[in-house]
UniProtKB/TrEMBL annotation:
The chain crosses the membrane at residues 33-52, 64-82, 94-117, 123-141, 148-166, 172-194, 206-225, 231-254, 266-287, 293-315. The keyword Acetylation does not apply. It is found in: Cell membrane. GO terms for cellular component: plasma membrane. Keywords: Cell membrane, Membrane, Transmembrane, Transmembrane helix. This is Permease of the drug/metabolite transporter (DMT) superfamily. The keyword Membrane applies. InterPro entries: Diverse_Substrate_Transporter, EamA_dom, EmrE-like.
Length: 323
């Protein structure tokens, strides 16, 4: 779903928006939309911690092996917890899960390989660029302008992210930055695909399919291009467990379910908080300094979220009608 050219229309029972590729309006239940937004924000928090976890695990294995273990263990956990989903998976589930899984695999591979050649902050900022890509991709898919508010909010959010993550030397684009930019594009396309194809699908089933396909692809590539992991420490096992459960199994399922309740513009802007959480983890656990740039950068991000979430004109009109 994307916003109509006039933005969202708030009513007493729900929020109305257009669905990409469909001339009909979709009615959002406002309470469910709040739950969807909270779900997306939780995903952002869990993924924000993953930058530190990934950096730590990459000291002991290649990126393809990291993704192999991450996806394989996630699939095993889902299959063990809900074995009926394995037997009840239909052709439509395989098709949708396969497409989403392919986009996930491309995004995660580019991000994980790219983070070896750039800093965590730059990786977080460039990944966050998918926020500004989503309105353009949904516009191309639906031929319906997402509205000025979506573009303004995305632009403000990106400026805030730049203030938080860039250092005084600026951001030069090397191999790591280019790979991560490709990751951002893949994530943006995945958000739109989930919105268009996964509304009537079981979130956990799709997560099971996408993790299984990604694990198979990664292990084949890892056996060809990377040496076998040879050293495991308790810290590595702990970080890997977090990547499997806290950064893969839970948020990927939660993302699909949450996007069934809220709009892609809400999802894209809220997901950018992943980078904010990544920075907070750096300050709390890695001793990174608190700066004035960090303060006003966070303020800009908060403002962009308010612009996306609030319809001031619609709220004022509703209050006048009630009066």
């Amino acid at each position: 779903m994307i916003e109509s050219s006039g933005g969202f229309h708030n009513g007493r029972k729900g929020v109305r928006a257009f669905r990409p590729g469909d001339m009909n309006e979709r009615i959002y239940d406002k309470k469910k939309m709040i739950l969807g937004d909270l779900g997306i924000l939780t995903c952002a928090l869990l993924w924000g911690v993953s930058f530190a976890a990934t950096k730590e695990v990459l000291k002991y294995m290649g990126p393809l092996w990291l993704l192999t273990f991450r996806f394989a263990f996630s699939f095993i956990l889902i299959a063990a917890i809900t074995p009926k989903r394995v037997n009840n998976t239909g052709k439509r589930d395989l098709k949708v899960g396969g497409i989403i899984g392919f986009l996930l695999l491309v995004a995660m591979a580019l991000q994980t390989i790219g983070i070896q050649y750039t800093t965590t902050g730059k990786s977080a900022f460039i990944t966050a660029c998918y926020v500004v890509m989503v309105p353009f991709i949904t516009w191309a898919a639906s031929r319906r302008n997402p509205g000025l508010k979506a573009f303004v909010a995305s632009a403000i959010c990106l400026v805030g992210m730049g203030a938080i993550t860039l250092d005084e030397t600026g951001m030069g684009f090397g191999l790591g930055e280019m790979l991560t930019l490709g990751c951002a594009l893949a994530f943006a396309v995945q958000i739109v695909v989930i919105d268009r194809m996964a509304q009537d699908r079981d979130a956990l089933t799709l997560t099971m399919i996408e993790t299984a396909l990604s694990a198979v692809a990664c292990v084949v590539a890892a056996l060809i291009w990377e040496p076998l992991p040879t050293f495991w420490s308790p810290a590595v096992v702990g970080w890997m467990a977090y990547l499997v459960v806290g950064c893969t199994l839970i948020p990927y399922s939660l993302q699909i379910k949450s996007q069934q309740l809220t709009s892609p513009t809400h999802a894209s802007v809220l997901m950018i908080m992943e980078s904010v959480f990544a920075l907070i983890v750096g300050i709390a656990f890695l001793g990174e300094p608190m700066t004035s740039r960090l303060v006003w950068g966070c303020g800009l991000i908060f403002l962009s979220i308010l612009i996306t979430e609030l319809d001031v004109a619609g709220f004022t009109k509703m209050r006048r009608q009630e009066a």
